[in-house]
Structure formats: C-alpha cells, structure tokens
Write a structure and sequence with these properties.
Length: 159
C-alpha cells in the first residue's frame, strides 16, 4: 500500500497536509478503526477514548503525559470524522472503492517548520492502521523516524 502525500501552502503560515491511501478493507472496517477507542488505540501513538459524535471529543493519553482533549467538529458516519487537536484541524474522509476504501486525511499544521515531522508521524500511523486492519500488530516506536522526516523535508523542499 502506498500513501500519497502533498502539502498545500496556498494559505500563508498554515500549510495543510493531504494524505490519500487505499485500504483493501470495507469502509465499515476502516470507519470502526477511526471511531472506536479500542481500535484507535491499536494504531494511534497513544491511548484514545472517543465520544464519537459531533460535539463529542477524543481523549488522547500519551505515556507519562496528561490527557489531551480534541473536540469532534464533524461526524458523518461512515464518511467523515473531523476534530481539532493541539491547534490543528484534522479531517478524515472515507469513500468506497471496489472491495476496499480510500481514506483521505487533511491536517492543518500550526508550525510550518514542523510539517515534515507531522507528515512522518501520520505516515507511520497510516502504516499502523494498515497493520491493525490486517490483524497484525502496529509497529512500535519511541519517537519520530528521522529518516522518514528527512524524506519529507526533501520532498516538500522540492515542491
């Protein structure tokens, strides 16, 4: 599976990362992996609880840190989940594609200097989602993959 990533810098100071990835799993399975705490916690880099409804919230608990709250800003099952986390807006959409589905993620980035790091983090998460959907354990890591961060810095510098 390949993740396609592009960065939109048309809004000054607020780059938006756009990810597109096809999963060979039904939309219902991918939707469940995005909207249930137990499933999210399998591939997201922290423990997640979710009140899956517009006006609800995700509670994200990273090891050794205080929980963070991310309000759900859009919820349209089984198509769209959006939330606001740490000053950034994230929007996940799913569309059926034959026997699988296409996931699209957009993420505004508060700090433009952090764009490559954010891209590398989501790339890793989307790989983890693929593993979880396939019944495999998600890769475990203790921090950003510096090689992947360097890849995205080079990719975004090239335009």
């Amino acid at each position: 599976m390949t993740t396609h990533v592009r960065v939109d810098t048309s809004t000054p100071g607020s780059p938006v990362l756009h990810f597109t990835r096809r999963y060979p799993h039904p939309r219902s399975a991918v939707w469940a992996a995005l909207t249930t705490g137990e499933a999210l916690s399998r591939w997201f880099p922290c423990r997640v609880e979710i009140d899956a409804r517009e006006g609800g919230a995700l509670t994200l608990t990273f090891p050794g840190e205080e929980p963070e709250t991310a309000p759900v800003t859009e919820f349209d099952p089984p198509r769209t989940l959006a939330f606001h986390w740490a000053g950034e807006d994230l929007r996940w959409t799913l569309e059926e594609d034959g026997d699988g589905c296409v996931l699209r993620l957009s993420n505004t980035v508060v700090d433009p200097e952090w764009t490559a790091n954010t891209a590398a983090g989501w790339d890793t998460c989307l790989e983890g989602l693929a593993a979880a959907l396939g019944g495999r354990p998600a890769p475990q890591g203790t921090g950003p993959d510096e090689e992947l961060v360097a890849h995205y810095r080079q990719l975004f510098a090239a335009g």
